[in-house]
Write a structure and sequence with these properties.
heterodimer; A: alpha+beta; Alpha-Beta Plaits; 2 domains; three-stranded mixed sheet; two-stranded antiparallel ribbon; 10 helices; about 40% helix; disordered C terminus; B: mainly alpha; Formate dehydrogenase/DMSO reductase fold; 4 domains; three-stranded antiparallel sheet; two-stranded antiparallel sheet; about 55% helix
């Protein structure tokens, strides 16, 4: 399982990662620059990666966090989103029907939609899946001049992050964002400022699918339970009506109901 | 009859406006026709038409439950109308959804591509199957007309099984519509987010769906069969002793229709269910502590209160208060209140509850309203057509009206043609279409005519000398003060105009600001800030684990904003490197990039000039060789200023 470690203290905000991302994903560079000015967090269908300024002089990367238990993957009704064993969460445009439930489901509000197209698709960071498959780091990591992005095995990066926190206690906050939030993510953040402004939840937030999966796995049983319950209730009522008929004799109070039953 | 005709006209107007909106949606795409955005991806069509529209159509399975499972035979007359309402409700919801999804021609994908972990997948399957069930249940109504007795008999035989399957499917997808919103625990407002959402959705839908059935019956009675609910007209009422005999507050006997007791009974059941919803909702507020959020008095609190009052409070009061219990008007009011409460509740959960976390307010566009109302109006028209031509409700009024000759078209002496055109039916609809489609078109079209947004607006001089202009420099719609004189001077005086004007791209009048000012902390592109932080740290031999992070102070004085203005001038360090007089070196970073026109001229002209030396190629050293518009003027090539 691969991951990217983001060191917020090293990022100078040069946005070379963004430029590399735009080139790698064949986005329209002019529109991408326009979008940076008009979107609140810089993300758009042309900018799958952006830097969000936090306070003064700190920049945090915002893009798909590639959750370990992705809400979008569990939400997509046609299975158009997949969590690959290599780590990236990838999107299959051939399956997508454009319901945009992934956009609602994502806890970080990452997926973007090509609203201006007449045949629109969802766009999101894929951690350069094709490059990762070949063993090359994603374009953003390669472009970073300051070593603020590091690509590697998730466990190794986690160890490295905890090592850095231990050796530089005065520099980093004692928390690796992405270690367990929403069930863990494949983007890990080290920082000396709080990162809640790019969508990180408080410590201990559970994964979103853990809220829905237990419920939806019971669906067939709920359906069958309701059906058998209905049959049971109907059986009791009919039996009581028959008993009523026997005691009242013909022409009793149950008759109109029985007439209705016959017509059905 | 006049009332029915007016209603039909109104429905035609809305349906045709919706048709125009639908054409625009398919033609221009979602972004141009709707006000949806990445922050609010689900809007009116999904929440209002689908989530709420399906919820209001629960009458089909709820009346089936009462009649077939609980054997409450007094509601059997409502069975056929309830199924018709469910069929049309689901039908028009699915139609709206077809326009809402980005790729409508792929609507069938979930049948083949499965993700059984998705609640939306479950909703899709259950809604599709239940829609089929309502079509089967509607079968007897249609086949009776065709006199296919054996088909009708078969459908009656399987009716109980079909109803049971329908109720199971409904209980699944009505709760799952609530579960859809379980995935947004951190974004949906805590007043509406609750793990009980599925339960809330199915209970409120069941209650409000029955109230909608009451409303349909009352509206139907007003349109066609007044006596069945409202009782005989007042002058006749003196002669006829009312059958159901309710009393109002003044102690006077008021005439009531024969179907009113049934409606009151149905409304009582419906409001009991809504009451249960209210009790669970209040208990939830108390248990999970959301009452504190309610007590905060934000606009969400008021919306929540309004929703509960409409959905639970007012209907309960009107139906259970002995003063109003037997009045058809009060019953209708209670039904309208419950239905609008349900719609408000679904809009709250699906749209309004997200405003605070999205930081964005969504208001549907004209086309969204038009399509939304249009599909509902189309369903209403279909309802009226089926009611008039098939046996759905009681049939007595049809023979009565036919005897009175109301269905026969009347002609008077005023204008035979005009009256035929407006008498009824399709001719009348055609006249409405001829007026309505161009009207709706012209109302909605102008907002899409400006789709080519990338245009530079004319600059606005802020002072007499026009040293500062107010421009829309990044073509984003955001205006800024642009120090024009400063730029002109800095870029090289009178010869610098070309750097921004006309030299960037063909057809561009000015170059957008971001073509030079590309990066966040850099003044212009030719200055590489990242390289500088590293190089400065190295040359100054700075310490720390990230030396480059300590290099700011070398150029930016402490205590001042780190901007291009406050930074040290370049020449303080680069005195030797800089050759400001002649930035002609093509390979130097300090050179300006060639423009489109310069590139073309420099690529083409030298070769052209060489070739023109040859005796038979004289025409090549002429601007008009390439610039066709200069053909007449014969401008020699030497007069073109070529500066670098």
């Amino acid at each position: 399982m691969k991951a990217i470690l983001v060191d917020v203290t090293k990022c100078t905000g040069c946005e070379r990662c963004v430029e590399a991302c735009i080139a790698e994903n064949d986005s329209d560079p002019v529109q991408a620059h326009v979008d940076r000015a008009v979107t609140w967090d810089g993300l758009s269908e042309n900018r799958l990666l952006s830097l969000v300024q936090i306070g003064e002089g700190r920049f945090a990367r915002k893009s798909c966090m590639h959750c370990l238990e992705p809400s979008c993957v569990s939400a997509c009704l046609v299975g158009g989103l997949t969590k690959t064993p290599e780590g990236p969460v990838i999107y299959d445009p051939d399956k997508c029907i454009g319901c945009r439930y992934c956009m609602l489901a994502c806890p970080f509000s990452i997926p973007r939609y090509e609203w201006q197209e007449t045949t629109p698709f969802v766009r999101k960071c894929t951690m350069c899946f094709e490059r990762v498959q070949e063993g090359i780091p994603p374009a953003c990591v390669e472009a970073c001049p300051n070593d603020a992005l590091r690509f590697g095995d998730r466990d190794a990066l986690l160890d490295e992050a905890h090592g850095l926190i231990a050796s530089h206690r005065t520099v980093y906050l004692p928390r690796v964002w992405g270690e367990s939030e929403y069930g863990g993510t494949s983007l890990l953040y080290l920082s000396d400022v709080d990162l809640s402004s790019i969508g990180w939840p408080p410590r201990g937030a559970g994964s979103v699918p853990s809220l829905t999966e237990p419920l939806i796995s019971k669906t067939p049983f709920i359906g069958l339970g309701v059906a058998s319950g209905l049959l049971g209730v109907n059986w009791i009522i009919r039996r009581r009506m028959n008993l009523q008929d026997e005691t009242d004799g013909p022409g009793g109070s149950g008759t109109p109901d029985r007439a209705g039953e016959e017509s059905a | 009859m006049r009332r029915t005709r007016a209603l039909k006209d109104l429905l035609w107007v809305f349906a045709l406006a919706g048709l125009v909106a639908g054409v625009f949606r398919l033609w221009f795409g979602l972004g141009a026709t709707t006000n949806l955005s990445d922050a609010v991806p689900w809007g009116l069509w999904k929440i209002f038409n689908m989530v709420a529209g399906v919820a209001i159509s629960t009458s089909g399975f709820m009346v089936g439950f009462l009649v077939y499972v609980l054997k409450l035979e007094r509601f059997r007359p409502l069975m056929k109308p309830a199924i018709l309402v469910a069929f049309l409700g689901y039908g028009c919801s699915c139609l709206a959804l077809l326009f809402d999804i980005g790729l409508p021609f792929r609507f069938w994908h979930p049948f083949l591509m499965w993700n059984e972990h998705s609640f939306l997948f479950e909703v899709f399957w259950c809604v599709s199957l239940y829609f089929t069930i309502t079509a089967i249940e509607l079968g007897p109504t249609l086949f009776e007309k065709l006199r296919a007795e054996r088909v009708v008999a078969f459908l009656h035989r399987i009716a109980f099984g079909v109803v049971v399957v329908g109720i199971s499917l409904s209980s699944l997808h009505h709760s799952s519509l609530g579960s859809l919103f379980l995935v947004t625990p951190q974004r949906l407002h805590p007043l509406w987010y609750s793990s009980l959402l599925p339960l809330f959705f199915i209970i409120s839908a069941a209650g409000a769906g029955l109230m909608f059935m009451v409303l349909i019956k009352i509206v139907y009675a007003r349109l066609y069969d007044r006596e069945s609910v409202f009782g005989p007209k007042s002058e006749e009422a003196i002669a006829i002793v009312p059958m159901g005999g309710g009393s109002n507050g003044n102690g006077k006997e008021r005439p009531t229709g024969r179907d009113l007791p049934m409606l009151v009974s149905l409304a009582s059941i419906a409001t009991s269910i809504l009451g249960a919803f209210g009790v669970i909702q209040v208990a939830r507020l108390l248990v999970d502590g959301s009452w504190r959020v309610l007590a905060a008095g934000t606009w969400e609190s008021w919306l929540f209160g309004l929703e509960m009052a409409l959905l639970v409070g007012l209907p309960l009061f009107l139906v259970w208060n002995p003063q109003t219990r037997r009045s058809p008007t009060a019953l209708g009011l209670a039904a309208i209140s419950a239905c609008s409460g349900l719609f408000l509740n679904r809009m709250d959960v699906g749209i309004f509850g997200y405003f605070r976390s999205a930081g964005e307010v969504y208001f549907p566009s004209l086309a969204e309203w038009a399509l939304s109302a249009g599909v509902i109006a189309a369903a209403g028209l279909t309802f009226l057509v089926i009611v008039e031509n098939f046996s759905v409700f009681d049939e007595e009024w049809k023979t009565r009206r036919a005897d009175m000759g109301i269905f026969k078209a009347k002609f008077d002496s005023f204008s035979l043609v005009w009256n035929t055109a407006l008498s009824s039916g399709l001719e009348r609809a055609t006249v409405i279409a001829v007026i309505m489609i161009p009207l709706a078109w012209s109302l909605m079209y102008p907002s899409y005519a400006r789709i080519d947004a990338l245009e530079v607006e004319p600059a606005l001089g802020l002072d007499v000398t026009r040293t500062v202009l107010c421009i829309n420099g990044n073509t984003t719609g955001v205006k800024t003060d642009f120090p024009h004189a400063d730029h002109r001077e800095r870029l090289g005086g009178d010869t610098s105009c070309r750097q921004c004007h006309h030299m960037s791209l063909p057809g561009d009048e000015t170059t957008a600001c971001f073509r030079c000012h590309r990066q966040m902390v850099q003044s212009t592109r030719i200055f590489d800030h990242g390289e500088h932080t590293l190089a400065v740290a190295e040359s100054e031999q700075l310490g720390g684990i990230y030396p480059s992070n300590h290099s700011c102070g070398v150029c930016h004085p402490a205590g001042e904003a780190k901007s291009a203005e406050s930074a040290k001038p370049c020449l303080e360090c680069h005195r030797e490197d800089a050759r400001w007089e002649e930035p002609a070196d093509q390979d130097s970073d300090l050179a300006l990039a060639v423009s489109y026109m310069e590139a073309m001229h420099e690529n083409c002209i030298p070769c052209h000039r060489d070739e023109a030396e040859k005796p038979d190629q004289k025409a090549l050293d002429d601007c008009s060789t390439c610039h066709r518009s200069l053909k007449q003027r014969e401008v020699p090539i030497e007069t073109v200023t070529m500066r670098r």
